[in-house]
Structures are given as C-alpha cells and as structure tokens.
Amino acid sequence: MRRNDREIKDINEVISIIDECDTLRLAINNEGFPYIVPLNYGYRWDGSKIELYFHSATEGMKLDLMHKDNRASFEMDQKHSLKTDASRGYCTMMYESVIGDGFITFIEDYDEKVDALQLICNHYHREGFVFSKAAVNRTVVYKLTVNEITGKRKC
Fold first, then answer.
1. Are 13 and 151 in contact (CB under 8 A)?
2. Does the pTM of the predicted model rise above 0.90?
3. Within a 10 A sphere around the Cβ of 61, how many other Cβ atoms?
4. CA gap 98, 66 in Å, rounded
5. What is the CA 16 to chain-centroid distance, rounded?
6. Are 118 and 133 spatial neighbours (Cβ–Cβ below 8 Å)?
7. What single DSSP character describes residue 138?
8. Where are the beta strands (DSSP E) in the chain?
9. Cα within 13 Å of Cα(129), Cβ side
10. What is the C-alpha to C-alpha distance for residues 139 and 57, in angstroms, rounded to an integer?
11. Binning pLDDT at 50, 70 and 90, where does residue 115 land?
C-alpha cells in the first residue's frame, strides 16, 4: 500500500467495515478481463478466517465464470464525504474501504446453505428475519474464503 498512513491494520476495524457496508463488488476472471458484479453478502469471522457468503439464481454468466476459475477479488466501501478547500483549489474524498481476494466454493449441503442464507439475511435485517426455506433448493449459494485482505481509511 502506497499510503501506509491510511492502512487499517487492526482486523477488528476491518471487520467493522465489512459489517457496515451494504454492497460488495466481486471481480471474477473472464478470459483476460475482470467481470465485476455488485452483490449482497453475509460473512463469518471466526477470529482466524473470514468467509463471505453470496446467493444467486441457478444460472448466469457469473456462475459460469466462477465454475471455470474460482479465484476472485472483492471491494467494498463506505462513509463517503467530499472535502474541499476552495482557497487552495483542493478537493478529496473521505472513505473507508476493504479489498481482498480469495477462492470461491459452492455450497451444496442443504443445512450449510440455510446457514449461509441466514448470514446474508442477518447482515441486512439486524432485528432478525426468517426466510422461506422453499427458496433453498432453487438458490445457488457460494462463499469466498478470504486469502488476503486490506483495509484503508481517509478521514
């Protein structure tokens, strides 16, 4: 990282950003060009590894690409505010962000899929939300096990 003064080194602060963001951008390989999709997500942090969970329809380009190459990168960001100083002609953006990479695996086991879908729901419904189990068998669920992760903040 070029600006070490902006790096977030405390993993608990990185997890806090993951917890507060509402969209994750997933970049997967598409024969020489990245294919980027914004996704809803859930996560699990067990103190040593981070797993990011996603769901989708049963077919589509992103699934085809992930089956061909399970490597992926991701990005999420929040707390955007524009800071300007007209007298100096200065303009910059404040933010917090997390980027990383890892490997995607598809979840086939029914109970694991239910658990993953509940993690996704819990990320957006803090008060709890019970989803219809009828959707489980017609939903693809996959996770990205994080290999590398970096947090960055400018405030």
1. yes
2. yes
3. 11
4. 21
5. 13
6. no
7. G
8. 7-8, 24-30, 33-39, 42-45, 50-56, 71-85, 90-107, 140-154
9. 12
10. 6
11. very high
Residue whose token pair is 């990383």: 100
Closest CA to 52 of 123, 134, 108: 123
The predicted structure's pLDDT at residue 80: 84
DSSP state of 118: H
Task: Write out pLDDT tens, residues 124-150.
Answer: 997 878 888 998 999 999 999 999 999
40: enclosing H helix or E strand:
none
Q: For the segment 46-55, what is each residue's pLDDT rounded down to a tens digit?
A: 999 999 999 9
Classified as helix, coil or strand, 117 is helix
pLDDT of residue 2: 65
